[in-house]
Design brief:
The chain is an all-alpha fold. Helix content is 65%, strand content 1%.
């Protein structure tokens, strides 16, 4: 506590908040980052009923001698500075989208030499001919690399910092892009895709962590879906550029742009601050205060900084308390049985990838070329109708995420997931019907609707739910496991998708009718609702074994109040 007292003494006293008619709101971070030892750090309880679940602003005087507003920075809306810092960090997410999207439109030119017979120019072939199975493996190596990157990123980001880790990670983007654009063989292209995938996995974890640690309570929902929005923006941009760079040898330039984006972002990262939470945990308190003040502008950061210090101190004071292992959390051998919530977090990350949406993202050009019966000569006339339609599919995904982000807090996670997954299943059925009846425009329209309804809900909700459902002591290990399941499932789907296309043909999307309907049933009967609830309230309401918690035949439990977390105990 010595550091906290020193920092508090160094700050000019602020006028008292006017809270005579309101109960002071829960400190989000203190609740979220248990455990707390009684007698050392205050234990906070849920008081959402005091404010009717609404976030309040605590305005004091107009300002003080430092020129700072006395609005509590913890509950501020997103400002321009925070948005620009988040965008700068999320350039890595745009690069992620670029890498997974740039392989789609030039696919036939690269793997089947659709632009003409293979020729060599200055030591480089015009195409890399391979079977559909090998092509599926090459495409799938990117999510496999992302899995490897996600495993390494957490520890590295805690050691080097979020900002510096994003800088270092750009080396993977540059190396992967150079390997891919200079490729002369299947092996080199595969290695390039894997190395780029490592960069994607690191970016996925570090960008979301950086944005979360900079966000306020009011901006957390928007920034929670921000990463998925930026990934889809990267996909869309890559497909726009692909229209002009799909011919040989220009597809090499398309792959190299990822390196240019990484270099530009490295320079831009020098202009943004490090995460205040990371700086506080590293003991760099003066830097943490300066960073937080820069993010919040002229707002009073005293209480927010105090929360950061309390969070870090409580963690240090409880380092001697044994933390439950992942297996103990998975099997319910902790004092609070989290099995149902853990199952839901893992299932959502699995369902995101078995939906078939990434198959559309990776292979829509090939699917539509087949459904529109394009001849070899027509494929050479770039842009083809299949490529132009693919461009629209990428654009509508970004629009869908924006729509979903704006309705999520109004409608609720569970309702949005149910509607989104059911509509995705229906659209998959329409794709099958259109393919079976050989109606190309119907297939294209259904694919547009498929991506729209999926990305508006089931596409980004899985990224939000773990942090809304799990206490801090379980969040790290379960989030890592969920990310691994997500990436490995994506690798499997990416690998088998072209194989399924060759074998099932018009009935390619039949498996995804089933998988998306299963996700819909999960939403109806098993999905917890976290709208307007703290982590404490969600855990209290849905703790216990895996079971039906919603639906017409389930009586919902009324959570107890007040709710507190004690240090985790492992049961024998």
């Amino acid at each position: 506590m010595a550091e906290s007292n020193t920092l508090s003494a160094a700050l000019p006293p602020a006028e008292p908040t006017q809270t005579s008619e309101l109960t002071r709101p829960v400190r989000p971070e203190s609740i979220y980052h248990m455990p707390v030892i009684s007698g050392s750090v205050p234990s906070f309880t849920s008081t959402t009923s005091a404010t009717n679940g609404k976030i309040k602003d605590y305005d004091m005087a107009e300002g003080d001698e430092r020129g700072l507003s006395h609005t509590d920075s913890r509950y501020a809306r997103m400002n321009r500075t925070l948005f620009l810092f988040a965008v700068t960090a999320a350039v890595s997410s745009i690069n992620y989208g670029w890498i997974i999207g740039s392989i789609n439109i030039p696919a036939l030119v690269i793997e089947e030499c659709a632009g003409g017979p293979m020729t060599w120019t200055n030591g480089f072939p015009s195409c890399i001919p391979m079977s559909s199975t090998l092509w599926g493996l090459v495409v799938g190596l990117t999510p496999l690399g992302a899995w490897a990157g996600s495993l390494l990123s957490g520890v590295a980001a805690d050691r080097f910092g979020r900002k510096r880790m994003l800088m270092y990670n750009n080396a993977f983007f540059v190396a992967g892009a150079l390997l891919a654009c200079l490729t002369t063989s299947i092996v080199q292209l595969a290695v390039g895709r894997f190395v780029s995938g490592i960069g994607c996995g690191v970016a996925a974890n570090v960008v979301s962590t950086y944005c979360s640690e900079m966000s306020t309570v009011r901006s957390r929902g928007f920034l929670g879906g921000f990463q998925q929005l930026m990934i889809l923006l990267g996909v869309f941009l890559s497909q726009v550029v692909s229209i002009g760079l799909s011919k040989a040898p220009l597809w090499r330039v398309l792959f190299s742009i990822s390196a240019a984006v990484a270099i530009v972002q490295t320079l831009l990262l020098f202009l943004i601050p490090e995460s205040p939470k990371f700086l506080t945990s590293a003991g760099r308190l003066d830097e943490a205060r300066a960073s937080l003040q820069r993010i919040r502008g002229d707002m009073d950061i005293s209480l927010e900084l105090d929360d950061l210090l309390t969070t870090v101190e409580s963690g240090r004071q409880n380092e001697h308390i044994p933390q439950p292992t992942m297996w103990q959390v998975l099997t319910g051998k902790t004092e609070i049985d989290l099995r149902h919530l853990v199952f839901c977090a893992l299932f959502l990350m699995l369902s995101q990838q078995w939906s078939g949406a990434k198959g559309v993202m990776f292979y829509s050009t090939e699917i539509l070329s087949d459904r529109f019966h394009l001849t070899a000569d027509e494929v050479k006339e770039i842009p083809t109708i299949a490529q132009l339609l693919t461009l629209g599919i990428g654009g509508i995904g970004a629009v869908a995420v924006i729509i979903g982000m704006n309705i999520l807090d109004k409608v609720g996670r569970r309702s949005v997931l149910i509607v989104s997954s059911f509509a995705t299943s229906v659209c998959a059925a329409l794709i099958v019907v259109g393919s079976a009846l050989d109606i190309g425009p119907m297939v294209a329209t259904a694919m547009y609707l498929f991506n729209l309804v999926f990305q508006a809900g089931a596409g980004f909700i899985p990224y939000l739910c773990a942090s809304e459902m799990l206490p801090y002591y379980a969040l790290g290990s379960i989030s890592g496991l969920a990310t691994s399941i997500n990436c490995l499932t994506l690798f499997i789907v990416s690998f088998i998708f072209p194989i399924l296309d060759k074998s099932l043909k018009a009935y390619l999307f039949v498996p995804f009718i089933v998988t998306n309907f299963i996700t819909c049933l999960f939403g109806v009967f098993l999905m917890p609702e976290a709208k307007g609830k703290s982590v404490l309230e969600v855990v209290d309401e849905y703790k216990g074994p895996i079971r039906f918690v919603a639906g017409p035949f389930v009586r919902r439990k009324t959570p107890s109040s007040p709710i507190t977390f004690s240090p985790p105990k492992v049961l024998d």
